Amino acid sequence: MRIICKAIWLALAGTLLAACSGHGGAGAGSARKVLNLYIWSDYLAPDTLSNFEKRTGIKVNVAYFDTNETLETKLLAGSSGFDVVVPTSAYFARQIKAGVYLRLDKSRLPNLVNLDPQIMRRVQEFDPGNAHGVVYMWGTDGIGYNAKMVHSLMPDAPVDSWRLLFDPNVAAKLAKCGISVLDTPADTVRAVLSYLGRDPNSQSDADLQAAAAVLAKVRPYIRNINSSEYIQALANGDLCVALGYNGDVMQARDRAREAGNGIDVRYVVPKEGSVLWFDMLAIPKDAPHPDSAYAFINYMMDPKVIAEVSNYKRYANANAAATPLVHPDVKSDPGIYPTPAQIKGLSVQLADTPEHTRALTRMWETFKTGR
After folding, report:
1. Which fold has domain 139-276+347-369?
2. Which residue, 269, 261, 287, is CA-closest to 344?
3. 109-162 per-position pLDDT tens digit
């Protein structure tokens, strides 16, 4: 029966969650033994969920998404069936305003004491009082590139600048080895605005039009628009330049090293600046198993648990108590944990207004289709 339920969950991604979990008909005891998790693809250590199941007796049904837009569509439609979701800060902020999330009962999260107060203060910029979410991972947007391939085509390539992606004269030279951008308009447009020296969180129509003009000029040279496939593509040498999340690029670098294929993947936060993002653990207001949700979030704030995720996935966590458990090569890597100097050039990614989101979506469809 558990195998059948898991298959249904993976096939339908939430539409039959109530049937599988027994919600609506089973007793409270069985409901407490299920967790429906919706998380970014490839974003856990191999044993994170199995260890949680062993520790708590709670069965985890997990489904994956690779864009915030996909997650938001399900949440705003209501009755998603999810107990814990993992939105990124800018989307999380507007979802809070839409009343999507449960206000956390912090008495049920004793491991909150482990979180870094400085990071939590930054999070309050989009979640006042840290009332609705807990930081899972945080990081930066930047450029991942294959050093050998890029320099073979362009010895003087501006690898420390957004020009590597958004200057059409540069992009034209690198198109041969493959350029990729995230299929996330909020991230990609913010990168362009940083390149232009404008506020990455700008809601101005003029700034959006300026960004659209830049993207239109480089569109012929972009091979992929995707938010997950670029990891393996960089590691294999199928791409040479990608706009991506720092941890993803670190994974690509490590995969290439493990494969011994001679590919040298590097990550850079461009000198023009970039955004600082936070992925949050949050409980939808209509979560069918809130007790399981609290148990899972508290488990993820266990220093040993979250350190293992950082060590495996190459993303920074917000757990101060976990720092001694993070591998030295991870916590000392400025591509994962930015230096204080780098932090000064980073803006926290904030929410877009509904009006700007609609304009952004229209612009993005034009960019993707070329029409």
Report:
1. D-Maltodextrin-Binding Protein; domain 2 (3.40.190)
2. 269
3. 999 999 999 999 999 999 999 999 999 999 999 999 999 999 999 999 999 999
